[in-house]
């Protein structure tokens, strides 16, 4: 996943040959999805970025038919269902007055992940929805059914208006990372290590996001590497807050005066996008880890791994050293499905989540939260084993 995917995600679901691809083409006013009378034309989820006035840029995902059959068909259906935790809004497309097991299963998944959705009865130029079906759907879903056909521009406008009305505003109205933490004209110090994990000639996304947010809050920004932190402090300038990479917490916390607020990019993102309270609650469970416990490390992106990788090498080593226990670690990258039997994990630790949406990150952790498995994130876990947990979460306490 890339940072350009940090837009509201809309998923379109329905049976084979129901008109999902035609609906997308109508919404974007161009041929972006293959349309065919042959069932099963769409195999894997296909994304398209479009603009919806009133929301802004969104990503629409066309999915395979939820009634597909055969070995490959079952895999396609699984792929379609795997999209649901990663969307902000769902469209269930029906037609020809067909509504049954497949549609109910989709609705249940929408509601399980708290995904707002609408039900659209397509091909209404061929056959309008029967009142008996409306009554049946009303017993199952709180959502009414909207009529649609690809030839009626007024129905398209009605559909788009409904999407705008029901789309959660926090999916596209981005809040500030540091609002309420910093004031205009205050100095924010960004401490950014440069190691083999840093992209050549560039800064990582959380650093760029922090820099932009400082400017948006009319504050001042200074950027240094941890090796130059002492030199900066010799200038006699006191920052309002220092934000660093979690992996250098131990070094930075020893140098930075205790009266300067300190946190990390990962913790900043946890407050902005993650389930912050659950992280606060779950992190101290590090103390309860025992020999043989399994820990699941969640990475939101896929990347090449080096010996300096925080989630794959550094943090597991620090946790083992801190607890003195023989711990086992599993890793899941991207937005892949959780491993089976997640209740076998003593703890789950999520990365900062800089390249995923708030909905995607929270839904990724939802199975663990429901099973009351302690969850933390990289920054908080590192802070805990470093002994500065209270200090680095204090800037965001009760904000």
Order of helices and strands: EHEEHEHEHEHEHEHEHEHHEHEEHEHH
Order of adjacent strands in the largest pleated sheet: 2-3-1-4-5-6
Helix content: 25-40%
Strand fraction band?
15-25%
What is the CATH fold-level name of the domain at 3-171?
Rossmann fold
**What's the CATH H-level homologous superfamily of the domain at 3-171?**
P-loop containing nucleotide triphosphate hydrolases
**Helix-strand makeup class:** alpha/beta
**Which CATH C-level class of the domain at 3-171 is it?**
Alpha Beta
- Low-pLDDT residue spans: 32-38, 303-307
Spatial separation of the terminal alpha carbons: 30 Å
Task: Please state the overall shape, judged from the principal axes of the Cα atoms.
Answer: globular
The tally of helices reads: 14
Any guess at the CATH architecture of the domain at 3-171? Answer: 3-Layer(aba) Sandwich
For the report, how would you describe the main beta sheet? Answer: 6 strands, mixed
Average pLDDT, all residues? 87
- DSSP E strands, number: 14
Instruction: Kindly provide the radius of gyration, computed on alpha-carbon positions and rounded to a whole number of angstroms.
Output: 24 Å
């Amino acid at each position: 996943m890339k940072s350009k995917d940090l837009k509201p995600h809309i998923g379109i679901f329905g049976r084979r040959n129901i008109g999902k691809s035609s609906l997308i083409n109508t919404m974007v006013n161009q041929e972006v999805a293959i349309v065919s009378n042959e069932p099963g034309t769409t195999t894997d989820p296909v994304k398209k970025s479009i603009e919806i006035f009133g929301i802004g840029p969104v990503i629409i995902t066309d999915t395979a038919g939820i009634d597909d059959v055969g070995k490959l068909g079952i895999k396609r259906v699984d792929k379609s269902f795997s999209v649901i935790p990663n969307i902000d809004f769902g469209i269930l497309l029906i037609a020809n007055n067909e509504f049954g097991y497949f549609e109910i299963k989709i609705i249940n998944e929408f509601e399980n992940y708290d995904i707002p959705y609408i039900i659209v009865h397509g091909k209404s130029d061929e056959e309008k929805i029967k009142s008996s079906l409306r009554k049946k759907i009303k017993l199952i879903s709180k959502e009414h059914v909207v009529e649609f056909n690809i030839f009626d521009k007024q129905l398209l406008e009605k559909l788009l208006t409904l999407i705008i009305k029901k789309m959660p505003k926090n999916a596209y109205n981005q809040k500030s990372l540091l609002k309420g933490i910093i004031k205009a004209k205050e100095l924010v110090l960004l401490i950014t290590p440069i190691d083999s994990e840093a992209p050549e000639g560039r800064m990582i996304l959380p650093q760029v996001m922090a820099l932009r947010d400082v400017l948006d809050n009319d504050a001042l920004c200074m950027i240094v590497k941890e090796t130059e932190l002492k030199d900066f402090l010799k200038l006699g300038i006191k920052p309002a807050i220092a934000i660093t990479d979690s992996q250098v917490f131990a070094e930075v916390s020893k140098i930075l005066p205790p009266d300067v607020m300190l946190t990390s990019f990962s913790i900043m993102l946890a407050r902005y996008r993650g389930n912050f309270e659950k992280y606060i609650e779950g992190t101290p469970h590090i103390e309860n880890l025992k020999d043989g416990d399994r820990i699941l490390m969640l990475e939101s992106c896929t990347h090449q791994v080096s010996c300096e990788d925080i989630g794959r090498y550094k943090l597991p080593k620090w946790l083992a050293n801190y607890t003195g226990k023989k711990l086992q670690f599993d890793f899941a990258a991207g937005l892949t499905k959780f491993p089976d039997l997640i209740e076998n994990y003593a703890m789950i630790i999520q990365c900062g989540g800089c390249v995923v949406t708030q909905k995607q990150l929270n839904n990724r952790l939802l199975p663990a939260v429901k099973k009351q498995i302690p969850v933390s994130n990289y920054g908080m876990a590192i802070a805990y084993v470093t002994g500065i947990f209270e200090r680095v979460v204090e800037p965001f306490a009760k904000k």
